[in-house]
Amino acid sequence: MTATAPALEFSTTLTSNPVPVERRSQVLANPGFGTNFTDHMVTATWTPDGWHDAELRPYAPLALDPATAVLHYAQAIFEGLKAYRRDDGSIWVFRPRANGERMLRSAARMALPELPVESFVEAIELLVRADADWVPSGGETSLYLRPFMFASEVFLGVRPAKQVTFCVIASPAGAYFASGVQPVDIWLSSDYTRAAPGGTGAVKCAGNYAASLVAQQEAIEHGCDQVCFLDAVERKWVEELGGMNLYFVHANGSIVTPELTGSILEGITRDSIITLAADRGYKVDERRISIDEWRDGVASGDITEVFACGTAAVVTPIGRLAWEGGEVSMGAEPGPVTQEIRAALLDVQYGRADDAHGWMHRIA
Ligand SMILES: *Cc1c(COP(=O)(O)O)cnc(C)c1O
């Protein structure tokens, strides 16, 4: 990575045409996920002489020339984090610097420019302050923030783009599970892998998701919700879901998550749970776990709970693992450890518990 780039200077142009209050109230009453966006966005442009035109401005479509590089070669990365409104009305985000640091690593892998972490955090602060009225309140609602960066140069040659756009948009999000936490069913993909050694699995690039979609489709066809991917070499080691990391709870009370191998995404939720579970006295191991250990462990009673984790769905119990010719069931109800970890994380995020690790960042 190059020497730290200078921080961006943001200018502000507020919208003269905000979404009418009644419409916004309607959206906030039933936000869903990823379909409604706030009044503003942040954009900035990079060229080889540095970042410029950093701006908070009215939310609007981007005009893209058909030869814009990202449309052809997918040089694109993104992040995802949430702003939470507390009962006292204040607004906080969870570990935004960790997302900024991960975006730096993603950018380095995808030959995209370095965006200073402080500028990443400032972009989020500007957007959330301008659109504070869009942060829902109550239950497990939040304002989902989507920073992303892509090759915006108009050029069909294959090389790292010399013009790049950074953008942050925001979308009110409802509780992921409208009717309480429901265990999800997982399909074990045998035809497809998500990430290979030396590939892009450890970074949040758009192409990882594109490549996971047919496996996801296969999961749906088999009556499942999500896909579990194995390692690409031995097809033996459990890696993660298409967009969530995995945790296993053992009968002896220890908790295991697959160790980071370079092809597993370094989830901030995953990382936070390692700390939170240890705080609560659990023994947490990061090690390889084979698909046979999962199947046999559930059958023998050694593995009592399995859950997935990520920003969008927080902590999600896994009820069933199915594959071509078989399945094991972890149970139709969320397990006690899953529920405890889930509550512990949400309590920090919504300010109901002490923030012992300094994870929360106040914005408004
Ligand atoms: C984003 C993502 C996760 C979860 O990361 P968080 O930082 O916890 O939201 C897990 N796996 C993949 C593949 C992801 O893209």
Our count of helices gives 8
Termini separation: 33 Å
Strand content bin: 25-35%
- Bound molecule types: pyridoxal-5'-phosphate
The chain-level mean pLDDT equals 96
Modified residues (N6-(pyridoxal phosphate)lysine): 204
Pfam family, one: Aminotran_4
Keywords: Amino-acid biosynthesis, Aminotransferase, Branched-chain amino acid biosynthesis, Pyridoxal phosphate, Transferase
EC number: 2.6.1.42
Give a verbal description of the structure.
The chain has 364 residues and is an alpha+beta fold. It has 2 domains: 11-173, 2-Layer Sandwich (D-amino Acid Aminotransferase, Chain A, domain 1), CATH 3.30.470; 184-349, D-amino Acid Aminotransferase, subunit A, domain 2 (D-amino Acid Aminotransferase, Chain A, domain 2), CATH 3.20.10. Helix content is 26%, strand content 29%. The chain contains 8 helices and 18 strands. It has helices spanning 21-29, 70-73, 96-109, 117-130, 206-221, 268-279, 291-300, 336-349, and strands at 11-12, 40-47, 50-58, 76-78, 81-85, 91-94, 142-151, 164-173, 184-188, 226-230, 238-241, 245-250, 255-258, 284-287, 303-310, 314-323, 326-329, 360-362. The strands form 2 sheets. Strands 1, 2, 3, 4, 5, 6, 7, 8 and 18 form a 9-stranded mixed sheet that branches. Helix 5 (206-221) links the parallel strand 9 and strand 10. Helix 3 packs across helix 4 (117-130). The relative contact order is 0.14. The model has no long low-confidence stretch (mean pLDDT 96). Bound molecules: pyridoxal-5'-phosphate (PLP). Pyridoxal-5'-phosphate is lined by residues 80, 204, 240, 243-245, 265, 267-270, 310-311. It comes from Jiangella asiatica. Belongs to the class-IV pyridoxal-phosphate-dependent aminotransferase family.
